[in-house]
Amino acid sequence: MSEAASTRVALAKSTTTRKTTSRSLGSSTGTTALLPSLTPLLHEWLPRQRWFAGKGQPVTGFSLVAATEILPLDASAGPGLLHLLVRAHQPSRTPQSHDDCYQLLLGVRATLPPRLAGALIGQVADGPLAGRVLYEGLHDPRVAGLLLERFRNPGSLGHLSFERAAAIPPGLSPRLLDTEQSNSSLVYGDAYILKIFRRVFPGTNPDLELPLALAREGCGRVPAPVAWFEATTPEPLTLGVLQPFLRGARDGWHLALAALGAGRDFVPEAHALGRATAEVHTALAAALPTPALARERTGHLVAGMIDRLEHAAQAVPALVPYVPGLRAAFDAVAAQGRTGGGWAVQRIHGDLHLGQALRGQDGFWSLIDFEGEPARPLPERRSPQPTVRDVAGMLRSFDYAARSHEPWNPEWAARCRAAYCEGYARAAGTDPRGEPELLRALETDKAVYEVLYEARHRPDWLPVPMAAIHRLAGTTA
């Protein structure tokens, strides 16, 4: 029997035996005993995952939010698949921080085949899974195939709800991508890509909400969601989105580095990317409300930037000498707000950089990953923002590319930045450089975020944003 066929058989079995098997974990006894039995393994495994956000802080405990058997755990001939939503308790990292909730898809087998040795989490010592081997389920093609079958046969299962917007062909082989940082992605037959959100928040994730809105608006710059799944209880949570896979497309980051390595300009590509960004912003403005940034909201915007600067300066001492110069950029925006100046705000990408743009072999740019900055709270990521925030993110990305190549080529970055803004202006009718105070402040805010991120995760990269900090502090001074 083929892998795809056995997956469909397993799916049918899980449907027919759901009521029976759910008693093992669905009962109060089974559910209560499950998490304590897994806790020793999770303590060791979870903090090592790239998508775990609480690195550097001890995990003091776990609490179970929800547990669903996607594939029955009593299947002796093959794997079981257990879906968990688990809250990891840690000492407070900031006054606003909360214990994070993570989505886990755990494979369960009597013994683990050698080909899955790298996915091992450990053997469960006691509880309802005593003696079974626990592993990262997404590494198992049979388990990964089961998820696609769930989308092909949508409906509810325990705490989960699977939705589908278009037909999905059967028998597509899965492969797990190893490039994700904050989530996990599976590619099915080079036709679809499934992004699974690891750190989840109450509410609709923008990476589902905004592509759906853009699809309704007829914007072809963003792949339209084909299917998705959510948790329905104890509160709605977006868990994953299936979209078309842009086969043959390359992301802007690697294209930019290739251009630098070959000693050639990236100006035409940057101009076209600016145009694509403007088209997405225009479609979002048509699809969703675009309120004005009133005086009090301008004050809130500036206060957030100042707060992030002060927090970053406490964590990264190298930033301290630049604080007065950087603060001046934010004060300039506040002054405009007090004198009646304001800006339109709308839904935006929220974390735009070269890695979030894919260029097809025909030169057509698409934008992906509308999740926003994962470190920021979901309500903040879903709030309307000035479109210039996305522009500032892309301008910083051109700087990153130029600084990542030896020798450093600041003129290359300057030409790309100018071409991107010109392409944007050509499509939008307004040049983002026409709001210099706001653009400078948002680029400064992005550079401060980068300093904190690099200091925590990639210290060798810290000189890249610090070079921008030096420039921006001098400019504002």
Order of helices and strands: HHHEEEEEHEEEEEEHEEEHHHHEEHHHHH
Helix count from the secondary structure assignment: 14
Uncertain spans? 12-24
**Strand composition percent:** 15-25%
Relative helix content: 40-55%
Multimeric state:
single chain
Computed structural class = alpha+beta
What's the number of structural domains? 2
Instruction: Report the mean per-residue pLDDT as an integer.
Output: 89
Give the N-terminus to C-terminus distance in angstroms: 70 Å
Total strands: the figure is 16
Widest sheet: strand order? 6-7-12-13-10-9-8
**Rg over alpha carbons:** 24 Å
Spatial shape: globular
Question: Largest sheet at a glance?
Answer: 7 strands, antiparallel
What would your notes on this structure say?
This protein has helices spanning 3-16, 18-26, 28-45, 141-152, 206-216, 252-262, 267-287, 295-315, 323-338, 378-381, 388-403, 410-428, 436-457, 463-476; strands at residues 61-71, 80-89, 100-109, 120-123, 133-136, 155-157, 160-164, 174-176, 183-188, 192-197, 199-200, 227-231, 237-244, 250-251, 357-359, 365-367. The protein has 477 residues and is α+β, with helices and mostly antiparallel strands. The chain folds into two domains: 3-244, no CATH class; 250-476, Aminoglycoside 3'-phosphotransferase, Chain: A, domain 2 (Alpha-Beta Complex).
